[in-house]
Specification:
By secondary structure, this protein is mainly α. The protein contains eleven helices and two strands. The chain has a two-stranded antiparallel sheet. The longest helix is centred in the middle third of the chain and has 19 residues.
Length: 258
């Protein structure tokens, strides 16, 4: 569900950024690979297959081929990053050659992968390979600024919107991401531990130093929380199905503050 919403948002952002000479390829003929074929691929080949899928079928929200490829990329983990970094480095909105050949759409695809890896598999900033990916993403943001994408305007879903969305994702990867917010909600719902944003960031840094793969400790579930929004309705939150390890880590974290 999150992936489909992410894809739809990227679609809306990408529409005005595409020229007639570099179509999105929504209707281009493209044959899906079988699961057996995907399983035989190298991590780099699976990243490319993911990009091909996103360029050709990314806006068909009933197409689940992307989820199949994504499953294998989760398993690849850090092994997928070298190819992801190459695709990040290829995208340069300051040059026509850096935008041609669906490079922008391929960038969108690997941006989605970075987000998924960071909140489902391993915190990127906690590994050497991940930090190289973060450096490459920072390079994309800088090139977007040089291309004028950071100049805010009143045009909905403009180049600025693409820049802003990329910068937001970079901020989440370098700081608090979805898994951290789920940990925060878990500690409140299950143990009535309330954390400030500052403490959550410090706890995230603690977890990364201890085990950067903590996003994989547990799957999350969507439940109705006990807090109420301004309209008087319960706030739905994502909490960890297996909270114990996060709770034990939090107790260790608190000991370091004594």
């Amino acid at each position: 569900m999150i992936k489909k919403a992410f894809a739809l948002l990227l679609f809306i952002i990408a529409l005005p950024l595409c020229s007639s000479s570099a179509p999105l390829g929504i209707y281009a003929p493209f044959k899906h690979k079988s699961e057996a074929e995907i399983a035989r691929m190298t991590p780099a080949q699976r990243v490319d297959e993911w990009c091909y899928e996103q360029v050709n079928h990314r806006f068909d929200l009933d197409d689940n081929q992307g989820e199949l490829i994504e499953k294998y990329i989760w398993r690849d983990g850090l092994a997928a990053l070298p190819r992801i970094i190459e695709i990040l480095d290829e995208y340069d909105p300051t040059r026509a050659s850096g935008r041609s050949g669906n490079k922008g759409e391929r960038f969108d695809a690997v941006l989605m992968l970075l987000d998924v890896l960071d909140h489902r598999v391993v915190r990127l900033r906690g590994t050497e390979e991940g930090r190289r990916a973060v450096d490459s993403l920072e390079g994309v943001v800088k090139r977007m600024r040089m291309a004028g994408y950071s100049q805010k305007d009143e045009v909905k879903w403009s180049k600025y919107e693409r820049y802003d969305f990329t910068a937001l994702n970079l901020g989440w990867i370098k700081g608090i991401n979805d898994v951290d917010n789920s940990v925060k909600d878990t500690l409140w719902v299950r143990y009535k531990i309330q954390m400030s944003k500052e403490e959550l960031l410090a706890f995230s840094n603690f977890l990364i130093a201890r085990d950067p793969t903590y996003p994989s400790w547990s799957d999350a579930e969507h439940i109705k929380g006990d807090k109420i929004n301004e309209a008087g309705n319960p706030i739905w939150v994502y909490v960890m199905k297996k909270p114990e390890r996060f709770y034990e880590a939090y107790l260790e974290f608190k000991k370091t503050k004594q």
